[in-house]
Amino acid sequence: MIYADNAATTKLDMDAFEAMKPFLLEDYGNVSQPYSFARAGKKALRQARVVIADCIGALPEEIYFTSGGTESDNWAIKGIMVGSKGSMITSEVEHHAVLHACRAVEELGGEVLYLPVNRRCEVQPDVLEEAVTSDIKLVSVMMANNEVGSIQPIKELSRISHEKGALFHTDGVQAAGHVEIDVNRLGVDLLSASAHKFNGPKGIGFLYIRKGTAIQPYMDGGSQEAGMRAGTENVAAIVGMAAALRKNCDHMRENQIRLRKLEQIMDDTLRKKGIDFIRNGNFGIPGNISLSIGGEEGEVLLHRLDLKNIYVSTGSACNSINTEVSHVIRAMKVPREYAEGTIRVSFGAGNTEEEALEVARALVEICK
Ligand code: PLP
Question: What is the spatial distance between Cα 93 and Cα 119, in angstroms, rounded to a whole number?
Fold first, then answer.
């Protein structure tokens, strides 16, 4: 089989798995306990926080472990907005973890403004500049889009937000481990990440919270995570996440070069064979290829590829009456005759040039 849906989730890295094992089978003590049996877990937890902080240019005490990207996004948004009198701004192309958290804010009486994007799925800084006023408490714009891989001008957007006194959150779930992140250079106050998007285990992530940011705790209970997020720590998963992020960051450049090559192979093959397609986004995340193919239906392509044991994702879903195009593809205003034929091929660790060629050839065969 060819797995080309790494933006959905990734295979656990073997070194990360090895690093996790002792904390599942031997040093499984509850790290809140004062006895010596919990010592190894406590030390590993401390080290993991240092490693993760180092990977994104943060301080260890600015890293809070969560159950993943969804929780981190919910915490960032609700932790700032619930109980506050101000409004917030986000974009039309956010993941549902952000959009539905915003909906919850609206249901509690808060106001949310949704910024449009251009054809490349970019939030333009001058559009934010016009929208942000002094009653905006929070601006949340994703660092990289999960459907088309576009990277947003975060440094510029956070600067504009700060000038008007707003905090800035970015959903970094698709970016962490794939492109360089330095929270200080980007100037973000909050950043969400999720381990299973960078070859770590599922169900674990973190929220970076800049020191001094006024945010409500997310979970009531014990005093874990400095009293901000209660619940017994999943030490094995946290250790696995740190190992995976470290490895990805250490090999980032070579991974990027390899993935760009796979993109090129796909692109060249489809073009040479005369496939009528639009490549969406600004090609930010290496290996994330969103294609809108003229006259096709994304869901049909997905199932036809599935029959060939090739796994990709779609940006449109058919029902018995019509084809529903995703909110991201709609926001980018991809022409209807292409939009319905949108699929996302996302290559990752382990994908080879032969596989990229095979995916492209399979697509050509199906389309022809
Ligand atoms: N944000 C983005 C951009 C994502 O791509 C995802 C997952 O697809 C999430 C948030 C949610 O992350 P998780 O699956 O860890 O809850």
Answer: 12
